[in-house]
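Case study: Antitoxin.
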Amino acid sequence: MSLQVNIHEAKTHFSKLLAQVKEGREVIIAKAGKPVARLVPITSDKPERHPGSAKGKITIAPDFNAPLPEAILKEFEE
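Here is what the predicted structure looks like once written out:
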């Protein structure tokens, strides 16, 4: 459910409006009755990270640090 307030009311009661947003309510801020902004709670779209979760899924070639062949090095110089 959303609540619409005018700019003056939003400035006057901003911390109260943020408390409502924190509880999950959407607040629409309007100018002359026309909506111009929406305050919504931030949701975490980032997946939870687990250190070491890729263990065994990644391999590094034994020659990882070996110099590149001359043919490939020349491509970088052009």
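For the exam, be able to explain this: The chain is about 30% helix and 20% strand.
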